[in-house]
Design brief:
By secondary structure, the chain is an alpha/beta fold. It has 3 domains: 174 residues, Aconitase, domain 3; 103 residues, no CATH class; 112 residues, Aconitase, domain 3 (2-Layer Sandwich). The chain is built from 16 helices and 14 strands. The protein has a 5-stranded parallel β-sheet, with helices on both faces. A 4-stranded parallel β-sheet has the order 8-7-6-9. Strand 10, helix 11 and strand 11 form a beta-alpha-beta unit. Helix 8 packs across helix 15. The radius of gyration is 22 Å and the shape is globular. The chain starts with 7 loop residues before the first helix and ends in an 8-residue tail after the last helix. 54% of the residues are buried. The model has no long low-confidence stretch (mean pLDDT 96).
Length: 419
């Protein structure tokens, strides 16, 4: 491939991976047949760049996904590749304040990627809609909350790749063999002893926020879990830990696939440090994640970061059915488009819209920078979104349970508290 036998695009991709691997001191490349990447088009800049360079979208891919100034013809992807979230929901563009022009750019990118053989899942949770690697499978994934779920819950093996390395992996089926691809780098480094029961999804988000702050980019091992957490709880735990810190892998003793016991989680090593998570630590995490919340009036309730599962949508509908969203408050819920189709068939979308809310796809408020106009105070059930939304959008953010958020949507006021 490096010699050009598979064409110029593959040659450029392999050149990028070789340079990447050398910078990392990787000894070799490893085969991958599972890539998750973001290479979409949702800005005028992409349109203008494509128009100004011969080759159109191939020029965009060459420059921004292959680090290649020369425009090369991009062939169909060599391996199974899923697209992550986009910048807009084209079916709710007007509501999101997105112009028809941007929707055209979005559709242009969608047509291009579909032609390359990329699976247009358009979600930060590809594992919820069909991309479910098995234990030991080498992957090349982007997106922090997806990477940590892949490594920790599924036992797949991936580092947090970027647009360029993932783009190159799409065309070559290779990725540098380093980091979390190696057995020895997947062992735990820090022990977290739970001194209280971690119950609902919000509780797991708080725990994740605390753990990320304490271990930063290392590998925490959680001990003392009394009840096996479901998909949503592990999803929110990982998303929070990768936001407050830089965690890309964790172990939960007796739950995650590489931690049947303490010895398996740590190997021959011992914890570098042990932290205890009790009522005081939980309270501190809650106060930190709510540090921007000041005003009780709530303009906007945003759910679905990471994207909601069908179970979470069902839970919202149990809380929302027969109710009405406050006139001064907006409720937007984000989910993969394939899950929205199920919600449509089950009548969940109707329950949400009858209440005055909206079920959206493909993006979220922090990633797409899409919110109702004039929002000053938001309520979320995601510690990750509470971490990023104030910084990115300049709003206050309250964090609480899903029930707290739905209550805020109905009353227009925040009344959540730490139970």
């Amino acid at each position: 491939m490096l010699d050009g036998e598979h064409g110029p695009a593959v040659q450029k991709a392999m050149d990028l991976l070789v340079r990447y691997g050398e910078a990392l001191d990787a000894e070799r490349l490893v085969d991958t047949n599972n890539v998750c990447a973001t290479v979409g088009a949702t800005t005028p800049f992409v349109r203008d760049f494509a128009a100004q360079h011969a080759g159109g979208m191939d020029a965009v891919f060459s420059e921004f996904s292959l680090d290649c100034a020369d425009v090369v013809k991009i062939p169909k992807v060599k391996v199974y590749t899923s697209h992550l979230q986009q910048g807009i929901d084209p079916l709710n563009a007007q509501l999101q304040g997105v112009s028809a022009e941007l929707v055209k750019i979005y559709r242009m990118g969608e047509t291009y990627l579909g032609g390359l053989g990329v699976q247009l899942l358009n979600t930060c949770t590809p594992y919820q809609v069909g991309n479910v690697p098995v234990k030991g499978e080498h992957c090349a994934w982007m997106e922090s909350s997806a990477v940590i779920y892949c490594n920790s819950v599924l036992g797949g093996r991936t580092n947090a790749e970027g647009r360029e390395s993932a783009g190159a992996a799409m065309l070559t089926g290779k990725i540098p063999y380093w980091g979390y691809h190696l057995d020895e780098n997947r062992l735990g480094t820090h022990l977290i002893e739970l001194e209280l029961e971690v119950k609902d999804t919000a509780d797991w988000g708080l725990l994740g926020y605390y753990v990320g702050e304490m271990v930063q980019e290392r590998i925490p091992v959680i001990n003392g879990v009394r009840n096996v957490p479901n998909l949503a709880r592990l999803k929110h735990f990982g998303a929070a830990a990768s936001s407050s810190g830089g965690v890309e892998m964790y172990h939960v003793i007796g739950v995650t696939p590489e931690a049947r016991n303490m010895k398996e989680a740590f190997g021959a090593g011992k914890p570098l440090a042990t932290f205890r998570y009790g009522p005081a630590e939980r309270k501190r995490a809650y106060e930190q994640v709510n540090s921007t919340g000041r005003d009780a009036h709530v303009d906007y309730v945003m759910l679905g970061c990471p994207h909601y599962s069908i179970e979470q949508i069902w839970e919202v509908c149990q809380l929302l059915e027969g109710q009405r969203i406050h006139a001064d408050t907006s409720l937007w819920i984000f989910t993969p488009s394939t899950i929205k189709q199920i919600a449509d068939r089950n009548g969940y979308t109707k329950i949400i819209t009858d209440a005055g809310g909206h079920l959206m796809t493909d993006t979220c408020s922090a990633f797409g920078r899409v919110m109702p106009k004039g929002v000053q105070v938001a309520a979320v059930d995601s510690a990750k979104q509470a971490h990023y939304l104030p910084a990115i959008m300049g709003v206050q953010a309250w964090f609480g349970t899903t029930a707290d958020c739905i209550q805020a949507a109905i009353t227009g006021r925040w009344s959540g508290r730490l139970a």
